[in-house]
Each structure stands twice: as structure tokens, then as C-alpha cells.
Amino acid sequence: MSTEAMGQKTIEKPMQPRPALSLVGGPRIMPLDQYECFTGVSTNVAALKEFISVQASQRQPTLLIGERGLRQEQVARLLHQASEYWTQPFFSVNAHSLDSDSLHSLLFGERGMIESSENGTIYVNELTRLPALVQQRFAAHIEEQRWKAHSGRHTGPRLIFATEWNPSDLRAENRIAHGLVELLKPMSFTIRPLRERSEDVPYLANFLAERVTRRLKRGPHVISKAAMKILSDYHWEGNIDELEAVLESSIAGLPPQMIDETLLPSRIRFSTLKEIPSSGIDLPQMIDDFERNLIETALRQTGGNQTRASAMLGLRVQTLNMKLKRFTEQGREIKL
pTM (2 decimals)? Predict the structure, then answer.
């Protein structure tokens, strides 16, 4: 590369220095700067870093507890990448997309993932929504692996599960899943929602805004103090996923500029409204935004199941379909 070209090359610096993760029993050092799930200053983020650094060298099944939108799969992938088996396959299993027989065959069949990925990692995104047969099979497999580990033998892939359910709420609803969660509890970590660690939101917002502007090639966008206060106070039902979506909608199509509160969606700007601003408000738009947010939240909680989402919202399925169609026609399609 010529001297002139080197002079023109820009060097990206991290928003804030963050300590690198030193692997236990591994030769590599992996910086955490590129992972939003580790961005912040809360005790929960610090504890997650410590959990990863310790568990990276372990092979026991791991359980990640937390609401949707907290990037649990990113944590699982880093656990795999930080292990000595990082060159082996990583499989992500969507518990909602397959029926019981297909899921059982995929995981435990003659050439299923359990048998074929000897030193890889299998990530299951929602443990409590697995069919009862698959939950029972996982419990039996984990017990068998623990017995083999006591004998000095290790076989099979590493298992990482995620659940949005509080283990204490599972006993009455799903006793099989409750037993499996209890089995996994010694190697579990709870990722707190953003509303319980608002001190992380400014760091996350800056981190995500920088990434969004880089991806959209929009140049730097700086978040104003007033806008940041609103973002920090907002009750993020969708957590990191929702925060990134809001920032992307505020940045898309805009030249480099200051992101002030007027660029934030009305449902966020006025979520804690105590008085009407002198400039007035657009009540129909606020109601429309609020309705869309509730529908999106219900669909996210039910894994896109419109029948269950309709029941949660007190709507007929046909009514929900009409509203989804209207949002699509407005160019505001709900995507999960």
C-alpha cells in the first residue's frame, strides 16, 4: 500500500475502552469491543464477562436466562468461539420452526446433531418451548453425559440453551421444563433486561448508532442529551433488538446530524409524558404507533403465532390480520 493510500485510510477507534477477554485454557485473546451484549457499565455486564471467561473452557451444558432481544445467541456463539473447539461447527436450533418428530430426528436421530457434532456446539433458542419428548430426551442425555464425565470420558457436543422464562414460574406451567431448568441451573446466567440496567443504555445507544451509520453509510450521528435521557428512561420491551431498530429508523435516510428527541418515534418520546408540549402532539399518530408497538410485542412474545397474539391483545385473529395488512400498506410492516 502506498504512503498516500495509508494516509487516507481512516482508523476506527472503539467508542469506549473495554477490557479484552482472556481465554481460560486457550491461546487466543478475543476483544469484546464488537459485541453489544457486553457493552455497558452495569454489574450484570461485568458478571457476564466473567461468566464467559470462566465457562469458555468448560464443556457442561449452559443455560442463558433472559427476555427476547438480549442477543443470547451472540453470547452462545462467543462461548463457542472462546473454547478450544472454536474450529468445530456451531448449530443454532429454532424451537418454533419444526414439529416434535422433525426436531427429535434433527437432534437425536441416527445422523442428528448430537451424534454428528462431536466437539461442536448446539444452541437451542427457547428451551421451554421444546416439545415435551425433546425436553425429556435432553434431560436424559445431560444426565448420561455427566455420568461419563465422572468416569473421565467426554463425548458429544456442548449444549447451550436459552429461555425467557423465570425458572420459579415454570413449576406449575411445565413441570418437565422446570426439571430440565433445575438440572441446568448450576451452569446458568441471567441476563437482565435493559429496564433493570438503564445505566447501560447510553453506551449501547452510542455503540449501536455507530454500527448502524457504518452499515447504512450515513456518516456520524450524535445522540443529543435530551434524546439520550428519553432512551434511558424508556421501558424497552424488545431490549437491544428494539433499541437498534429505533436508532436505525431515526438514522435511515438522514445526512450526518444530531439525533434529537424530535427524531425519535412518538411512542418513545411521550412514553412518560407529564404535560402536553406547547408545540402540540399528533394524537392519532401516537395511538397508531402505540398500537403497532403492542402488536409487535405480542407477536414477539408468541414467536409470531397470530392466534396466541390475538388472544393476548383481546382481538379476533381477522382483526389482527387487518391491522398487520394496514401497517404493511403504510410501509411499516412488522418483521420478527
Answer: 0.74
